[in-house]
Amino acid sequence: MIPASGAAGRRRVVVTGAGVVSPLGDSPAALHRALAEGASARKPIELFETAGIGCREAGEIRPFDPQGYVGERNLRPLDRTSRLLVVAAQLALADSGWAPGGQPRPAGAQPGPARPPGEPSATDPQPAAEVGLVVGTTFCSVRTIAEFDRRALRLGPTHASPLDFANSVINAAAGQAAIWHGLRGVNSTLAGGEASGLQAIAQATELIRAGRADAVLAGGAEELCFESFLGYYRAGRLCGSLDRGAVERPVPFDARRNGFSLSEGAALLMLEEGSAAAARGAAVRAEVLGWGAAFAAASGEAGMADAVARAVRLALADAGAAPAEIGCLSASASGSPAVDRAEARGVAAALGERAADLPVTAIKAMLGEGLGVSAAWQAVDLVETIGDGILPGIAGLERLEPGLPLPLPETAPAATRRLEPAARRRALITAVGADGHCAALVLGAP
To answer: Closest Cα to residue 382, out of 27, 105, 28, 3?
Structure first.
């Protein structure tokens, strides 16, 4: 997708709420507060056995009790990824004032108990628009896929679980969440690595701009599981998986960094067409002003830096914003040496002089790398920053890699800071994956 140039008169896309499940909180405010305090999501893994693996910590959500959110309903058909997404969707619907089944509540009404999809209630208003769902993910239900294959190979095809089979496709979580909540609008899944969550928000934005939808939940979801954890460990991409004499925690942009820490969760923004949101009296938290995406087809850091720069320039053009108008950056940096360096150089190339004093956060220092959900976490947090002016720091950053063209501290931790109102009017998010997918999003104050 190539974004249209920023233009007056096109349909506005606004953020009216969010739902989040993460190791650092289950509400936008709680997550934002934990990030501002520099809290760490890393803890010993209990989801699976780590004996024989050098890395034994990750951002596991523990405890995670989905029935505490959705009530005593049958969760058996849902695997962990689907449960994370179902909860995030329920929280986003409630936060933005929509009832189950995509029905808007009157402004100020409180959410009632969850009920099976399609079951009517005399107190619900009629649907004003059909809510869609666009989800970004890297692996989705890879644990379920692996278990389905293992059982079929070990015991024979007749012993393969039909419940596992239903979740063995990459769009299973999006489909399950839509069924669970009665979401009848567009249902789509994007798989673009670490950029997936931002790509999902971009696609939802285009659907609303084009008049194909008035309300879409958009974001990402990813589970922590043995299969992906072991793969990244053996590839030497997890912090501590290679003996480089460096720190064993994610430290984006730090000279000592040696990889990222895996994490899990789900996050969704409720995106709505501006006039439709106003008509139902919804509170607007932020506005999606522009987006851009690019792919690093050329190998090496130079190719990736160029893709990052192209994505940022496209986002600025789509937003009709000059580099000087960008007040802060939520960077994708996770602690991967080459990827962090390429991102910094790409952003600096796109923003020019503005990069010299741009306030920067990299929340993966605290949350870890959530793959498909990471950029959605960034978006949720940046909406909170637009609201309260607090930009989280970068926990652990003490020794900036020499030559990085971003205004980060070179000898002291990057502390949380309070932004002036002018710096909150335009905010930039970047999402960069080692596989070459790059995306950028410009959010604005309402």
So the answer is: 28
